[in-house]
């Protein structure tokens, strides 16, 4: 049995950005009311052609200090998917100007990874075959037909970039250009020896 690995890189054509906003109050209801007011400018800012709000997640919790309840916090977390990467710098700047509790991304993606995955799988199989041929030669034998092929997974390894409040914040030096996404595959192979 031999193991092979393959990896290819493609330039990202999608991006994912996570952003969250918070509101606080003495009660959960006050925290939600504060968050609701906070989101008045947020929702319209995210209505951009080529950008989809993939999810909205609301959480409300109590805050405690030394076994004493000190208030509540409400948080709305958005996951944005950019189909038009030219919108990324402008929207990041506008969202940063709204003082989010968190701004994370971009996480680079591929809209369709089929070709890249197939190329990585082919490279993994070639790697496994070359290793098996080396063992066969060392034994004074020849490599026979493939008996068994098991996919060991693989996947994407996007390169990520993370970020630390009127007018949009200047993001011109944040390097928001698409980056390479690595697609990998790993297989285990069993061969006959002749």
Short recap of the structure:
With 194 residues, the chain is α+β, with helices and mostly antiparallel strands. It has helices spanning 28-38, 42-45, 88-97, 114-138, and strands spanning 2-11, 14-25, 51-65, 68-82, 102-109, 143-158, 180-193.
Describe the structure.
The protein has helices spanning 28-38, 42-45, 88-97, 114-138, and strands at residues 2-11, 14-25, 51-65, 68-82, 102-109, 143-158, 180-193. It has 194 residues and is an alpha+beta fold. The strands form two sheets. A four-stranded antiparallel beta sheet has the order 3-4-2-5. The chain has a three-stranded antiparallel beta sheet with strand order 1-7-6. The chain is elongated, with a radius of gyration of 25 Å. Residues 159-165 have low confidence and may be disordered.
Describe the structure using short key phrases.
194 residues; elongated; 4 helices; 7 strands
SSE run = EEHHEEHEHEE
Average residue pLDDT: 89
Q: Which strand order do you get reading across the main beta sheet?
A: 3-4-2-5
Biggest sheet architecture:
4 strands, antiparallel
Which outline best applies? elongated
> Helical stretch count?
4
Question: What are the SSEs and their pairings?
Answer:
Blueprint: E1 2-11, E2 14-25, H1 28-38, H2 42-45, E3 51-65, E4 68-82, H3 88-97, E5 102-109, H4 114-138, E6 143-158, E7 180-193
């Amino acid at each position: 049995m031999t193991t092979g690995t393959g990896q290819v890189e493609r330039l990202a054509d999608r991006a994912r950005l996570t952003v969250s906003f918070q509101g606080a109050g003495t009660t959960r209801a006050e925290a939600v009311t504060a968050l609701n007011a906070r989101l008045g400018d947020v929702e319209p800012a995210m209505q951009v052609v080529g950008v989809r709000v993939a999810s909205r997640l609301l959480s409300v919790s109590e805050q405690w200090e030394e076994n004493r309840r000190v208030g509540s916090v409400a948080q709305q977390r958005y996951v944005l998917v950019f189909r038009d990467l030219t919108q990324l710098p402008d929207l990041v700047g506008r969202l940063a100007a709204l003082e989010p509790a968190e701004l994370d991304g971009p996480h680079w993606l591929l809209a369709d990874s089929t070709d890249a995955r197939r190329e990585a799988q082919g490279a993994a199989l070639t790697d496994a075959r070359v290793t098996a041929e080396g063992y066969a030669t060392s034994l004074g034998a020849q490599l026979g037909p493939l008996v068994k092929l098991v996919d060991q997974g693989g996947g994407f390894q996007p390169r990520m970039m993370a970020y630390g409040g009127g007018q949009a914040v200047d993001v011109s030096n944040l390097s928001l250009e698409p980056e390479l996404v690595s697609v990998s595959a790993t297989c285990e192979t069993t061969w006959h020896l002749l």
